[in-house]
C-alpha cells in the first residue's frame, strides 16, 4: 500500500521551530489576559463581600507579586506593547480589517489608562511601602476614577476578546460553543465592574480612610504618572511618524500589478501583502483569521511571477506544510510581492467559520484531534494470480465494502480507498477519547467480519484473506481537497492531512513487519485506556521519518482487544 507521506530528517528538525512574532504576541497576550481575567473575577467577588475579595487578592498576589510572577508580567507587557507598536508602523496596517484596527487601536490606548492605575497601586507599594490592597483601592479609585476604570476594563477586555476570537476562530469546539464564550465575554467585565463599585460603596458607607501617602509622596506619584504618560505618547508619536513615512514612500514609490485570473488587474504600491492589495482595490478575498496566518483561507495559487515573491517565512511555511500545499500556493496575508504577479484565489471570498449558516466548514479546513485508521488487505497480489479480473474486483469489493460498512457502523468516516486498502477517520464529531474507542471497536468488529468473509469465500480463495491495521490519534487538518471553483462543488473530497495520518499509515505497514494484525500508537491506546493484555504487547519500534523509536501496542488479532477499550458508550 502507498505510504501517505514521509518526513525527511530536515522536516522532522523543523518541527522544533523558533517562536515567531505571532507566537510571541500570542504568548505574551495570553499571560496578560490571564492576569486581567483573574483581576476582574477578583473584582466580581465584591458582590459577595469585601473580605472574600481581600482573601482572593492575597492568594493572587502570592503569584503576581512574586519575583518570577512580576518578571513574567513585566516581560509580557513590554513584549506585547513593543510588538503592537511595531505592527502599527507596518505598512499593511492601512488596509487591515476593521476588527484588527479596533484591536490594535484599543491595545495602543490601554497604556494611557493603565499607567495611572498601575503606578497608583503596585507603584506606590513598591516606592513608598503603601499597602495597596482592596481597602486602599476602593477608597482612592471610587468615585474619582470610576470612568477611567470602566474605560480601562472595556479597552483591555475588547482588545483581548478580539485576539482570542481570531486565535480560536478556526477550532471546531470553539465555534460549536461560541454562544457560551460570547455570554462570558459580556458577563465577566460587567460583574467585575459591578463588584468593584458595590464593594467601594459599601466600604465608604461603613468605614473610614486615611490616605497613607504624604503630600510629597503624592506629588512624586503625580510626577511619575505625568512623565510616564509623556514617554508613552512620544513612543506613539514616533510610531505614527514611521507609519507616515511608509505612507509617503508608498505614494511616491513604484507600483506593482497583481492580476487575478478571471478577475481584474489591481495596482498597488510595493510593500503591501497580496491580501492588503486585494483590500486596497476592494477585491473580495477570504481571510477568516484576519491575516494572522492561522486559517489559510486567504491562500492563492501563483500562476505567473513566482520570482517576484520572497520565499515563505517560517510561519507561512508551517501553515503550507500542514496543508500539503504545492510550491506555487502561498498565503496572501503573508507574502509581499516585489513585482508583477498573476494569481488565482482558491477559496470563495464570503466564507465564514459557521456551520449554522449552511456553509461547509471543511471547505477551508479545520483542525481536529482525531484517530486515523489504515486497513490493508495482505498478500492480495498473490491471491489474485491467475484469476479473472471479475473475480479480483469481486473479492476486493467484498473486502473493502464490508470493512467500510463496519467502520461507518462504529462511528468512523471512510476517507478513501487506495487500491486494496482503506483509510478512515474517527472523531470528526466526537471527543478524542470516544474517537479512539470507536476506532478500537471498529478494529475488533472488522476482525470478526473478516472471519465471516473468509467463511463465505473459502471455496473461491486459495488461502484466507488477511489484513493489517494501523491507528494513531492526534491533530489533523480536515478539509476538502480538489477543485474548489465553486463552494461545495462536487469535485472536492473531504480528507485528513498531517503527521497523524502519516504515522497511522506507517503503523499499518509495521503490522506486517511485526507479524500482527493491529498496531496501535500509545496516543490511541492511552485515550482508549488500553494497557498490556493477552495478545497486546507494548514494544518500541523504529518508524520511518522519526528519529527515535516509539512505543506501540502490537495486537496479534483485533479480537484480542479487551471489550472495555472497544466499547463506544
Ligand atoms: S487570512 Fe488567515 S491565513 Fe491568511
TrEMBL record:
Signal peptide: none
Domain of life: Bacteria
Membrane topology qualifier: Multi-pass membrane protein
Localization in the cell: Cell membrane
Single GO BP term: cAMP biosynthetic process
CDD domains in the record: CHD (cd07302), fer2 (cd00207)
InterPro entries given in the database record: 2Fe-2S_ferredoxin-like_sf, 2Fe-2S_ferredoxin-type, A/G_cyclase, Adenylyl/Guanylyl_Cyclase_3/4, Beta-grasp_dom_sf, Nucleotide_cyclase, SQR/QFR_C/D
PROSITE patterns: 2FE2S_FER_2, GUANYLATE_CYCLASE_2
One MF term in the entry's GO annotations: iron-sulfur cluster binding
Every Guanylate cyclase domain range: 371-508
Transmembrane parts of this sequence: 24-50, 70-89, 101-119, 146-168, 180-200, 230-249
Residues annotated as domain 2Fe-2S ferredoxin-type: 254-349
Keyword vocabulary terms for this entry: Cell membrane, Membrane, Transmembrane, Transmembrane helix
A Pfam match: Fer2
Cellular component annotations (GO), alphabetically ordered: plasma membrane
Protein name in UniProt: Adenylate cyclase
